[in-house]
Design goal:
Blueprint (H helix, E strand, L loop, with lengths): L2 H13 L7 E2 L6 H4 L1 E9 L10 E10 L4 E7 L4 E4 L3 E4 L2 H19 L7 E3 L1 H10 L3 E5 L1 H15 L16 E5 L1 H9 L6 H20 L6 H8 L4 E2 L3 H9 L8 E7 L5 E5 L6 E5 L1 H13 L2
Parallel strand pairs: 2-7, 4-11
Antiparallel strand pairs: 1-2, 2-3, 3-4, 5-6, 7-10, 8-9, 12-13
Length: 297
């Protein structure tokens, strides 16, 4: 059912970043829903053992076996949601308050989902995963390059194995980014909007998925074994491998993308009490859009 995409899902979650990327299963009420697997990929900020982290990146990877498509849905981290026993706050605060369990519960209750499994990476593990996969190819535009190089300085320092001088990006166009460069690209935020940032993160995932889809099934075991140490998942290795090995057609799946909430049904504002930037969203319209994207063709 989950095919090669489940493997991609794992790797995608490993990477992001950016995380980052948790595997989630939605309610399966009809034929279509039974053929759809959803995975929430969680990328937490900071590094392991350095205090409380927030979910810097949250992307739902949908594997739609009925319509033969992969779908990436970015959940804006600044949306206001009701966090159980905490009240209304930003979505990414849930992870800091109660880890993955509270984040899952918050997403399920606010978006009418039934997510269960997960995969989590932090900044350092994201770097290691990208390097282990040989990097990613990203089309860097002229506007991004200066901001990217500024963030590269910080991200280089997060790498466990710093070798040689910092490598900056000197040209626009398609660039092969290593681990700390890819993390920097995923973390660009002051140049434009939070939604552009989410889009850049999805570009990295899409590139990783494309590269992995060209990987021979005979190499899956060695790849998973080399990467599994970098990700926190609640899915057994045998289950991941089983899902990966039964699928040979994922490479032909289309990749579709969605930003949640929709531009038409959201509003950026600052809270009067503390001036914090938040995103308010029209619940009914956005949830309808989300479920249609996930389960529709």
């Amino acid at each position: 059912m989950t095919n090669k995409k489940n493997l991609l899902v794992l790797f995608i979650s490993l990477i992001i970043f950016f995380s980052t990327q948790s595997i989630y299963a939605l309610k399966q009420d009809d034929l279509h829903e039974k053929m759809v697997d959803n995975i929430l990929l969680i990328g937490k900020d900071g590094v392991e053992g350095k205090g409380a982290s927030r979910s810097d990146t949250m992307i739902i990877l949908t594997i739609d076996n009925l319509n033969k498509s992969l779908k990436l849905t970015s959940l804006a981290r600044d949306i206001i949601v009701k966090i159980p026993n905490r009240g209304y706050e930003k979505l990414n605060h849930a992870y800091a308050y109660g880890g993955v369990d509270l984040l899952i519960k918050t997403i399920n209750e606010n978006l009418n989902l039934n997510l269960k499994d997960y995969a989590i990476v932090d900044f350092r593990s994201f770097i290691e995963i990208i390097d282990a996969l040989g990097g990613v190819t990203i089309d860097v535009n002229e506007k991004e390059i200066n901001h990217l190089n500024k963030v590269i300085n910080t991200c280089y320092g997060l790498s466990e194995q710093k070798e040689g001088n910092i490598e900056y990006i000197t040209n626009i166009g398609n660039q092969q980014l290593n681990g700390y460069q890819a993390l920097a690209y995923a973390r660009i935020r002051k140049m434009d909007t939070i939604y552009n940032r989410d889009e850049r993160q999805r570009k990295i995932l899409a590139n990783v998925a494309q590269n992995l889809s060209n990987t021979s099934v005979t190499n899956y075991a060695s790849i998973v074994k080399s990467l599994i140490k970098y990700v926190d998942v609640n899915i057994s290795f045998s289950k991941i491998m089983k899902m990966a090995l039964i699928s040979h057609e994922l490479a032909s799946y289309d990749i579709k993308q969605l930003q949640f909430p929709s531009e038409k049904y959201r509003e950026e504002t600052k809270l009067e009490e503390n001036g914090m930037f938040v995103v308010k969203w029209e619940k009914d319209k956005n949830i309808e859009m989300l479920h249609k994207f996930i389960y529709g063709n």
